[in-house]
Design brief:
CATH architecture of the largest domain: Orthogonal Bundle
Strand order of the largest sheet: 1-2-3-4-5
Helix content: 40-55%
Number of helices: 17
CATH topology of the largest domain: hpI Integrase, Chain A
Structural class: alpha+beta
CATH superfamily of the largest domain: Intergrase catalytic core
Largest sheet: 5 strands, mixed
Order of helices and strands: EHEEEEHHHHHHHHHHEEEHHHHHH
Length: 442
Amino acid sequence: MKTKKTQVAEMKQTILDSYISKVTPDAILEIKENSKGRGQGVFVTRVLINGNVDFYFRYFFNEKEKSKKIGRYGKTSGNLTLAKAKAKFRELSTIYQSGIDPKAQAQEIAQKLENEKKTQNEIERKKQMQGTFGQLSEYYLAHLKQNRGEKHYKNVRNAFEKDLHIIAPDTKASDIKKEDILKILHVITQRNALVMANRMRSYLSAMFAYGMVFDDSTESITKHTQFFIQSNPVSKVQKIIKNEKRGDRSLSEDEVRIFWRALDKSKMSVLKINAFKLILLSGARVNEIAALEWNEIDLPMMTITLPSERTKNKRQHIIPINDSMVKIINMNPKLHDTYLFPASNNEPQKVDGFSQAISRLLKNIEIDPFTPRDLRRTFKTLTGKAGISKEIRDRLQNHSLNDVSSLHYDKYDYLKEKRDAMNEWNDYFLEIINLDVYGNEF
């Protein structure tokens, strides 16, 4: 399109009106004001063929001619009068005289505003998606119901229903602080339920650990929710009972799974790892497994036979072997002709060494302190949850049965019942550590 250029001493309303009346369909009219002084820029008016008028600030920067549009002439909203256009010209001229490129500055400001808008939009998006404390507990319970045992799910659900109301459910999960966790535990300790307070602390820790990885799962897309939890607020809260009463400690299903996987990732000797696993799977005493001999194992018969001289009640004890135990035994390196777990002096591993190994392992995982002997109690507790009767559990662990019938008349060895129970325990245990029958993680 052809442009006809002209120059005036000063653009006034009457001059502008006269040029608008001269609009032709074949050329754009461009009218420049005389420069008011070197380095101040030039006020330019362009009359388009459709009658529209645009105002420009024209200037030189880095030896290049540039134009910054001031705006469009008109009395409607968003347009400028000639007076307002000249006022904006003077503002741009002041910027230009200070050594700044007005057009570049405007672009920077526009970019900054755009970035701020994007940031605000992201904040709003997060607000819309950001999960609440109530949602976190709801999703976590659904996760437990699907992936954990019914008993554990109910224990956590009942605990949450009783005490989580202390925190408003619409509180953003990422806003929960140590102080909020303490409020929950305080109410429980006020009932003098100190062990329950410890359990709640463990439940909440596991829930927030779940929340921290939730955002990276497909579940977050399905539920259109993210929690944006950066750290576990429970990790800064001390246990209510630092040392639970001796004899009371057993590991929860969560703790068993954490412990089992920590063993596999630890730098502990494979002999101690396998010993700990057999203690947990068999329910035997620590010293019985530590001194286990190869000739006490009958893989074709799927049994371990502990001689009377190695048992507490001085009675021979037969332990049926389940599939998980077979796998561990077969993988255990045969470093000694007699003992499965020999020490460097060709004697069995010392029980004290097992306690030290547990202490070192606990420094790297978030589990309440326990001793190797607590694994035997854990077996007793969790086999009960698996549905195995107390009588069979007692026989599996070679507890002394002091009733007259057992002492003098009942000579039946209950091997079939114990074998069935150990197979049930094997299936239940694999669910606890989230492994299928082939050893693959769910």
